[in-house]
Protein: Oxidoreductase FAD/NAD(P)-binding domain-containing protein
Organism: Niabella ginsengisoli
Amino acid sequence: MQEIITLTGIDPELEIQTSKVTSSVRELLQKHLNILYPLKSTIKQYATIITGHEIAEQTRLSLPDLLKQFPVKDAKMFEEVIKILTAQAPRLYSVSSAPGSHGVNEIHITVSKDEFYVEDEKRTGVSSEYFSTKPVGTEFEFFIQKQKHFRLPTEDKDVIMIGPGTGIAPFRSFIAERDAQAASGRNWLFFGEQHFVTDFLYQTELQDYLQTGALANLDVAFSRDQKEKVYVQHRMKEKGAELYEWLQNGAYMYISGKREPTSKDVEKMLVDIFKEHGNKSEEEAEKYLHQLVEEGRWEKDVY
Ligand SMILES: Cc1cc2nc3c(=O)[nH]c(=O)nc-3n(C[C@H](O)[C@H](O)[C@H](O)COP(=O)(O)OP(=O)(O)OC[C@H]3O[C@@H](n4cnc5c(N)ncnc54)[C@H](O)[C@@H]3O)c2cc1C
């Protein structure tokens, strides 16, 4: 934020009215506006309506980078820029706790730090960086977004959960809730990450669940611990016969985590499993998967 103020010479205490909120420049930049990754449409407006710079259509830069490469004339011009910035979008996180197990006054989330490169410079995502740097006790605003479909079935049904990476979050909640309910249905978790030593999220908790029987099966894949990359879908293939049997028995199956590449690869593998263990053609296997969706027995929460 300080960088933006220095680059533009704007008074940080100046009150500005944007489409959603009226506040000081400091507050707007700190809390309300999307300054780290403005939309392409915002950059287009910045170029054509306000500054007159020629900026290639595909360009997406953080506001500080934009101001460095395509400067505003003065603080007054930057006031206009502030008015076209869109609001900071909320980030969604799956709840990874369960009231029955962790109490009604706690909500846990499982956040992975988003790191990426912009022209060889390492950057971090706004929200995940925020969580990783704030001390215990920091207060922040949040809201709850209800999920209509991604829910546990009745306690007697078996549940298969595929949760690579932070995809484990809702399943930590599911398993804890089923444990608290002493559910008679069985629970099976597939978890995947890069390295066993550093990335096995909730390892001891899951091992305890395995011991107590709250988890009937736990299959893990650590992709970078050996030469050959091994992912959750490979573990599913190894257990294909059992997995198909659970589904034939009425199990509910869920996947959570990154959409690409996991979710697509898992669906491909499921079709292969149905072909092999259900003795089905490609078309029949796809139909079987579709039928699971129709019955609410194949639910996805991917991002
Ligand atoms: C339903 C749902 C559930 C989710 N559950 C979880 C969960 O349980 N745990 C979890 O960790 N996450 C979860 N997510 C993802 C989470 O909401 C955030 O998207 C994630 O934490 C990244 O947010 P961020 O603010 O850290 O990154 P952002 O700042 O939003 O950046 C996101 C991406 O934008 C790009 N980017 C940003 N700035 C620039 C730039 N200047 N130049 C180039 N590229 C840029 C990068 O590709 C970066 O990876 C979930 C998402 C959804 C929709």
Summary: The chain has two domains: 2-84, 159-302. Residues 2-84 form one domain. The pocket of flavin-adenine dinucleotide is lined by residues 36-37, 62, 91-94, 110-112, 114, 116, 118, 125-129, 166, 169, 301, 303 (CB under 6 Å).
